Amino acid sequence: MKVDVGNVVGNAEAKYDHPNPIARRLVAGFKRAVGDLYLRTCPESVLEVGCGEGLLADSLIRLRRPARFEACDVDLSRLAPDLHPDLTFQTASIYQLPHADRSVDLVLACEVLEHLEDPAAGLRELARVARRAVLISTPWEPVWRLLNLARGRYVRTLGNTPGHIQHFSRRALLRLAETRLRVVEVRRPLPWTVILGEPR
């Protein structure tokens, strides 16, 4: 996944299908938290922004299939094979989503805001498009970096994952969310923060 201005915003490591059993367990907790909040909203239309390989969208649509499930990213070259056939993908930037105001029941952006030069502008666009709910998540800092260091990853950058240019504590992400959303629920699967909110 790449940001529109050419910055690398992801890494080559498998995020949702990691070979390490501890990492798989952590990711399972993340997916469970996101899935629970997704099901809570009962959306008939969904837009995932910053979909990367499309694996999160694939797991969500298999939990509950809405009438329309779209996913977008600025670079769709890394889409996984054999994704659910009812998913539709398009190239789009979080800063300029090709959707009308209040046109999608649920808009989600998981593991996206930490890659943005201007996360407030990205969140503003998510809230503009959302009719009922916005679901966001970011790594929980500094725990994320400490866990990277504990497993010997990204030591030269003190555990910072390539492409992470914002670092959100739980309080910082909540403060950002509250600028555009009425926060409904916060989940804390280690080492992430997941927030469901209603657009203001």
UniProtKB/TrEMBL annotation:
Keywords: Methyltransferase, Transferase
One of the protein's GO biological processes: methylation
Transmembrane regions listed in the UniProt entry: none
Molecular function terms, GO-annotated: methyltransferase activity
Keyword Transferase: yes
Key word Protein biosynthesis present: no
One Pfam family from the record: Methyltransf_23
Name the UniProt record assigns to this protein: Methyltransferase domain-containing protein
